């Protein structure tokens, strides 16, 4: 694997007083938001990796860093509750089990469907260009290569697909906010379980926290199901370079997320 040209690093982002207050709270979802992805683009790539592109990469980085933390939280909770035997009806046990399933499903969807699928198409495009440029190709082969403008559009289109799959588009703000609320409820429960311990008999607060979590997950799944059904009824469009999206990064890929989250219609049956 070749080194990335340019200077890739992490910096501390400029924050408002309100944002700083959230970052210094270790039990907030925003605790790691002070980290910013920083990349100094070499002149040769500045036409393709523009400031707007870098901003999109940073937004993806910020969300994935939050998700990485959530993965640590739910796995720590699972190890904690696995140390003792719980009743299947115990609210703490059910909360941890369902929260872990939810976060792991989101993580798998974001990485495999949201990022990897779209990024693979970009890597294949770059490999094709590299193969032509590395060989003594004839003039006809060179003429088939995309122009720098087309490559920039292709790169931008790939990022748009990823951002759509990760709910980072402007029109997806409500569903991203709902996802963040679910993550926050898990962090709050984790803090309570770590600081106050747990008993075999559930108290009222645990039951209420679990109930709120379930309701938010139900709403999230309902919204995703509606978006997926709407996408299936829409004709596939062409992207900026004329190729079909084939479900990469658009709302139709939500069907894969729904299979991960609720393949047996548990939330539909239980809460309908």
3D structure, described in words:
The protein starts with 6 loop residues before the first strand and ends with a helix. The chain is globular and about 70 Å long. α2 (about 50-80) runs antiparallel to α3 (about 90-135), α3 runs antiparallel to α8 (about 255-260) and α6 runs antiparallel to α7 (about 205-230). It has a two-stranded antiparallel ribbon. It is built from 9 helices and 2 strands; from the N terminus they run βαβαααααααα. The protein is mainly α and about 270 residues long. Mean pLDDT is about 85; it is low at about 240-250. It has a single domain (about 5-270), classed as Four Helix Bundle (Hemerythrin (Met), subunit A) (Up-down Bundle), CATH 1.20.120.
Number of strands: 2
Spatial separation of the terminal alpha carbons:
50 Å
Report the β-strand fraction as a percent range.
under 5%
The percent of residues in helical segments reads 55-70%
Taking the sheet with the most strands, its summary is: 2 strands, antiparallel
Strand line-up across the major sheet: 1-2
Write the H/E string, N to C: EHEHHHHHHHH
Provide the structure class. Answer: mainly alpha
Q: Could you report the average pLDDT, rounded to the nearest whole number?
A: 84
The whole-angstrom Rg is 22 Å
CATH class call: Mainly Alpha
In the CATH hierarchy, the architecture is: Up-down Bundle
SS summary, helix count: 9
Main location: cytoplasm
Domain Gamma tubulin complex component C-terminal: 3-267
Organism: Bionectria ochroleuca
Protein name: Spindle pole body component
